Amino acid sequence: MMLVEATMCLLFFPISQVFVYVHLRSVPTCRIFMFFFALVNNVGFYNILILAVNRFIAINLPLHYHKLSTAKCNAAFVLTSWVVCITLNLPMEFNGGVGHYGVNPVYGGCITEVVRPELFDYKTLHSYLAIYFPLAMTGLLYGCVLLKQLSKCKRITPASQMTTREAGIIKRKLRIFWMLLVSYVLYAFCFLTYPVLTRALPDTVSKYPMLPLWILLIVVCGYFVHPVRVLQSLDSSLRCCCTTLCLY
Q1: What residues contact 210, with CB distance under 8 A and at least 6 apart?
Q2: 10-residue block means of pLDDT along the chain (248 residues)?
Q3: Which domains occur in the chain, in start order?
Q4: How far apart are CA 110 and CA 92, in angstroms?
Q5: How far apart, in Å, are the Cα atoms of 49 and each of 97, 125, 133, 139, 142?
Q6: Whether the Cβ atoms of residue 186 and residue 226 lie closer than 8 Å to each other
Q7: pLDDT reported for residue 247
Q8: Pick from 173, 188, 77, 93: which is nearest to 136 by CA?
Q9: What is the dihedral of CA 153, 156, 160, 166, to 10 degrees?
Q10: Dihedral (CA of 113, 219, 140, 1) sign
């Protein structure tokens, strides 16, 4: 997951900006580049969803966690995300009014072509399935886990039979998932800013060519924040999951 996000930051984003500065006019080059750019970008979103599913299973189905977190299952999850994203991005490579990639006629560089109103706009469906769906499902899973931890915290009373150690574990897990939820909101803000603004204010974005560059800065911040958050929370999450398994 971090390799995918590092590839976006260190390779695809710099190349996309260079294409604008050199006023690239090659349509085949843009289509090939945009396919892999969108593919890796979408795989990153589905990797976030896979990580959320993994954490959801670890907390809600601890007895089944080891069966579903083997190397084969993880490889199957990752492979599925690549197959799904390739399938979603292939229609963007073809003409016919479904919403394909092309060249910016004014500034150069690669863009998504504007589809005529009477034709089917596939790029809107692509945005919902490749961006909004995995982010929404990730938020739903984290929200469900957080609600479960909040309900457990309400049971921590002097009259309960819960030991101090068990109560401490629940409170620590709650802090972790509050952190995950807050970081998810920040992550979603960073990555949804660009597609939302470019769809809601297309004329403004096209009028000011420097505006997309500043918006992409917010996206890059999201790529920076997410791997750091994963590294910070990984050990604590594993400790809590192992403790939960021991209690069960």
Answers
A1: none
A2: 81 80 80 87 89 83 80 89 91 63 71 63 82 89 79 61 67 74 80 77 72 77 62 49 40
A3: 1-246 (1.20.1070.10)
A4: 13
A5: 31, 19, 9, 9, 10
A6: no
A7: 37
A8: 188
A9: 80
A10: positive
